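TA notes, week 10

Several of you asked for a full example with nothing omitted. So below is the full record: structure tokens for the whole chain, then the designed sequence directly under it. When grading your own attempts, check the secondary structure regions first.
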């Protein structure tokens, strides 16, 4: 999924303007949330590999998408190492790691389950556009678990994450 620089620049500018909106609205630390988890990552030509990620997010109350739909911005870091055995040559390795930033929209399915979608940019080894879809199950007011499928230019991930809202 190679993306051109115009799309990446437009998305980066949109995220910058959104961050300015958060600053104008007044940043409230109690609205922050953090998360971490594992991903089963795939890269063409290599065996799948387990990687990890952590992230922080902030809800965007000034963005209205429809009845009950919420949105947020998230920034995070992911890391994974891929290995492949090559006959007569041994094992070759490559890694994918780096920072990312995404816009996330949550659509409530019921009181405990949200469908979610994300779009943003990866600034690491797999730099470029990234997007994903998945679901979030709320354990209580502060804790949730997520299952998502995230696609980057080269690395695709099936991720399980734990989310904690600081409230």
């Amino acid at each position: 999924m190679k993306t051109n620089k115009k799309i990446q620049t437009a998305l980066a500018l949109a995220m910058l303007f959104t961050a300015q909106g958060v600053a104008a609205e007044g940043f409230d630390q109690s609205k922050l949330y953090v998360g971490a988890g594992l991903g089963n990552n795939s890269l063409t030509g290599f065996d799948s590999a387990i990687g990890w990620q952590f992230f922080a997010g902030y809800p965007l109350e000034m963005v209205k998408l429809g009845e009950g739909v919420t949105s947020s911005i998230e920034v995070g870091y992911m890391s994974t190492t891929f290995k492949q055995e090559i006959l007569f040559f041994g094992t070759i390795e490559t890694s994918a790691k780096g920072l990312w930033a995404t816009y996330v929209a949550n659509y409530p399915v019921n009181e405990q389950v949200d469908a979610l979608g994300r779009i943003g940019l990866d600034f690491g080894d797999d730099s470029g556009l990234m997007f994903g879809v998945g679901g979030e199950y709320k354990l209580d007011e502060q804790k949730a678990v997520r299952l998502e499928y995230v696609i980057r230019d080269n690395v695709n991930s099936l991720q399980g994450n734990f989310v904690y809202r600081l409230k």
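The helical segments are 5-25. Use that as a sanity check on your answer.
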